[in-house]
Design brief:
This is Reverse transcriptase domain-containing protein. The protein is an alpha+beta fold. It contains 18 helices and 13 strands. Helix 1 packs across helix 4, helix 3 packs across helix 7 and helix 10 runs antiparallel to helix 11. The two termini are about 45 Å apart.
Length: about 475
């Protein structure tokens, strides 16, 4: 890879692409100031970034962050039930984006990232991986074969990366010495402090993991985990890892032969798990056998009782497996997933109903589109062919939403869920959906609306941290 080129044009482009709705970093400089003053700042920042890269040094103020813990579902007295949202320096993010764009272009052009990695890559999504996996398993079931799948859980995947292991891998990808030196400085001597209700902790040093909230961190994670994919047949979406083994022989065989090939499937899965476990020991990565899921996909009536072992823990096959926010049953159906989606969407719609008096019909409609409908459409291309009786509860929720909106003109413009399920690229999280109702909001509605964003089960299955509700405008 050639050395990273920092030009005024790339700096100016990064400045203009800043999202002005985002928070300022610890330095207190709002993104709107940087974006507005981009032509004047670009020459100065270009010289600063070039000097930082040439010397392989990242200044300390760029390596400190403010962490705001956002509650997830569960006991709020348990620290593990909080999602940390880090606020880092905007200047660092600008330089990271310049480096990251050139680094990812090099990695993709030279096909250095394993093809079984679907996370953090342009043109790939969680839905793509799920389509591939469910196609394999459905084909096995329809052909009277069997498949044994395992979904792995990496404990604190991003937060516990061993720096020495990661940095030792960078030269093998052909990265230039200056870039390796800069990344070494980027990871070293980092510190964070936690902010809760205006109160701050002291700065605490962080000597493991890739920094949360940084542009370059996902790419560094891909480079770190890439060799695990080279040594096994695992498929990944970032840190969500899934492996399987398939029997593709004759369909009509005796019960004794069924037991024999099932033993072979278990042996194949155990071999895969052993390779993953060996990689984890070399890289100080911990897997959680208690949270590892196993599911046997089969159309046979006799149960799959043989279970593989992972790090000395037997893994019992369950009736379904949850992967990337989708629950898939052992016959490759989505009954449980659709029921759960309907319950969650109904709960959120109830919140909107209780707050309806505070918003105009157009704003109620936008709330429904932004906070309810995505739950009923996530990866719908997987289950678009589900029986109508399983899809009816979703249609019923939309009819409830139409009654809550209480505006015939607006409701007539709302496409049916059936129509939208036949359309590609249904929805992407966007603040644009929310801006109109935020501007028209009543402060009395805030406690209710916050339940949509921060209440139990509020996170969309997009695997990205959900945006919090900003102050009412």
């Amino acid at each position: 890879m050639p050395d990273v080129r920092v030009t005024q044009r790339s700096v100016r482009k990064s400045l203009f692409s800043l999202d002005v709705s985002k928070s300022s970093g610890r330095d207190g400089v709002p993104p709107i100031v940087l974006k507005t003053c981009a032509p004047e700042l670009a020459p100065v920042l270009t010289r600063l970034f070039r000097y930082s890269y040439s010397q392989g040094v990242v200044q300390y103020s760029w390596k400190t962050g403010l962490v705001h813990p956002i509650p997830k579902k569960g006991d709020r007295s348990d620290p593990s039930n909080y999602r940390p949202i880090a606020i880092t320096s905007l200047f660092s993010k600008i330089m990271e984006s310049i480096i990251n764009s050139q680094l990812m272009r090099y990695l993709e052009d030279h096909q250095l990232i394993n093809d079984r990695q679907y996370g953090f890559r342009r043109g790939r999504s969680a839905g793509d991986l799920l389509v591939y996996l469910t196609h394999r398993w459905a084909e096995a079931v329809e052909s009277k074969w069997e498949a044994l799948a395992v979904s792995l859980d990496i404990a604190k995947a991003f937060d516990r990366i061993w720096h020495k292991a990661l940095l030792s891998k960078l030269p093998s990808y052909g990265l230039p010495e200056k870039l390796c030196k800069w990344i070494t400085s980027f990871l070293a001597d980092r510190s964070i402090k936690v902010v809760v209700d205006g109160a701050c902790s002291d700065f605490k040093p962080i000597n493991v993991g890739v920094p949360q909230g940084c542009v370059l961190s996902p790419t560094l994670f891909l480079l770190h985990i890439n060799d695990m994919l080279l040594t096994s047949s695992i498929h990944c979406y970032a840190d969500d890892s899934t492996g399987d083994a398939l029997y593709t022989g004759r369909a009509n065989i005796s019960r004794e032969n069924v037991a024999e090939y099932r033993d072979k499937l278990v042996s194949e899965v155990e071999s895969l798990l052993n390779k993953v476990s060996d990689w984890g020991r070399l890289n100080l990565v911990q897997f959680n056998p208690q949270k590892t899921q196993v599911c046997a996909f089969t159309a046979k009536k006799n149960p799959f009782v043989v279970s593989p072992q992972f790090q000395g823990t037997p893994l019992l096959a369950s009736a379904s497996i949850g992967i990337l926010g989708v629950d898939i049953s052992s016959d490759v159906q989505f009954r449980g997933h659709l029921e759960e989606r309907a319950k969650l969407a109904s709960k959120k719609l109830g919140v909107i109903s209780r707050a309806r008096q505070y918003f105009m019909p157009a704003h109620r409609l936008q709330l429904y589109k932004a906070q309810v409908r995505p739950h009923m459409e996530y990866c719908s291309h997987l289950w678009v062919g589900a029986p109508q009786c399983q899809l009816l509860p979703l249609d019923h929720i939309q009819r409830r939403a139409i009654r809550i909106v209480d505006d015939r003109v607006l409701s007539d413009r709302l496409d049916t869920l059936a129509l939208r399920r036949d359309v590609v690229s249904l929805w992407e999280p966007s603040r644009k959906e929310l801006t109109p109702f935020l501007k028209a909001g009543n402060a009395s509605a805030t406690p209710l609306i916050l339940q949509l964003f921060m209440g139990g089960g509020s996170h969309l299955p997009s695997r990205e941290p959900h945006a919090r509700l900003p102050p009412l405008l």
